[in-house]
Amino acid sequence: MRRAVRDIPAYPFTPIDVPIKLDQNENPADFPAELKARAAEKLLALPWNRYPDLHAETLRAAVARYEGWAEAGVVVTPGSNVLIKLLTELAGIGQTVVTSDPTFSVYTLEAQMLGAELVQVPLCDDFSLDVPATQAALDAHTPGLLYVTQPHAPTAHSDSPQAVRALVQYADARGWVTVIDEAYYQYAGRDYRDLVRECPNALSLRTFSKAWGLAGVRAGYLLASPQLAAQVQKLVSAFNLNFLTQAVLETALEHPEYMERSVREAVAERERVLAALSTHPTCQALPSQTNFFLLRTPDAEGAYRHLLARGIVVRRQDKLRGLQGCLRVAIGTPPENDALIAAVRELR
Ligand SMILES: *Cc1c(COP(=O)(O)O)cnc(C)c1O
């Protein structure tokens, strides 16, 4: 077995069974029941003994229509985490992966397991990208893969479009495959398709796991130039996407209004929770452009245990660079958020 694999700990997640789950940034609303029924009808009509589309052609066409994108520039896989692995295979192995510190742990795990040189550039104190330091890191290494997460995870911060544009154009011009991970873009009300159109080495990574409320279905996709997408598509195994997934996603894409409504509700709830916690004497709820926020506490361990005792599970992030005392809290349903606000108010 390869040392790089043996040396890496398993993905750090322990499921905890409590009533209020705010630890995975999921959509608190289930996929609407009438859409589940429509997806089930599609499934019942399909011959299950046959292989699905080779490369999910029908679904890719539906994604392309929804996004206003060329079909040949769309790649769909079971979760965007699979695309992160494939992109590391495409541009990271034997080369360099550049990302921020802190960052989304899947980027660094895949880079380490697949044997890419990993370079992490610290975020500025206000959580913005350090553009000059990242440009210097690109200059100091052979090109490979650059991650720009917008809005950023786990900080929930959005950078200025000028900063993102400057960094992505710089990387693109020097041949770096640049991933703009837009897992939470709906909650920020802004996206970077225009920039991806201008930059042939850049792509947008998107998921059905958050705003679309389909984390259990496992699906994500990228938008890129047809040339770049064709290279990624080579790395996708044949028949990778089963038609159960395809039927559900086609149904979702036919009814995007349910997703848009749930995003409006999450944004309103986020602002309500942040306002309610803004006068807390010891904890600081940090601003957010996503469906989660960081809660900076004087004692992360104690705060985590207190919330758990109230039936609420969140994610500790206090060991990450610059996130001392921080818990990551997803926005839940209004009653769940009320319970969270009450439990945080008990903290001193
Ligand atoms: C949740 C999340 C994803 C989505 O991953 P899936 O495999 O599609 O569920 C991607 N990137 C970031 C930064 C995320 O937080």
Task: Provide the descriptors you would attach to this structure in a database record.
alpha/beta, seven-stranded mixed sheet, four-stranded antiparallel sheet, 14 helices, 13 strands, globular
Summarize the structure.
It catalyses: L-histidinol phosphate + 2-oxoglutarate = 3-(imidazol-4-yl)-2-oxopropyl phosphate + L-glutamate. 43% of the residues lie in helices and 16% in strands.
SSE layout and pairings?
Blueprint: H1 3-6, E1 20-21, H2 33-45, H3 57-67, E2 74-77, H4 80-91, E3 96-101, H5 105-114, E4 117-122, H6 131-139, E5 145-149, H7 161-173, E6 177-181, H8 185-188, H9 193-198, E7 202-207, E8 220-223, H10 226-235, H11 243-254, H12 256-277, E9 284-285, E10 292-296, H13 300-309, E11 312-313, E12 315-316, E13 326-330, H14 334-345
The protein binds pyridoxal-5'-phosphate.
Enzyme class: transferase
GO molecular function: histidinol-phosphate transaminase activity; pyridoxal phosphate binding
Catalytic activity: L-histidinol phosphate + 2-oxoglutarate = 3-(imidazol-4-yl)-2-oxopropyl phosphate + L-glutamate
Low-confidence stretches: none
How many strand units? 13
Distance between the termini: 49 Å
- What CATH calls the topology of the largest domain is Aspartate Aminotransferase, domain 2
Q: State which percent range the strand residues make up.
A: 15-25%
Number of helices: 14
Pathway: Amino-acid biosynthesis; L-histidine biosynthesis; L-histidine from 5-phospho-alpha-D-ribose 1-diphosphate: step 7/9
Pfam families: Aminotran_1_2 (PF00155)
InterPro entries: Aminotrans_II_pyridoxalP_BS, Aminotransferase_I/II_large, HisP_aminotrans, PyrdxlP-dep_Trfase, PyrdxlP-dep_Trfase_major, PyrdxlP-dep_Trfase_small
Modified residues (N6-(pyridoxal phosphate)lysine): 210
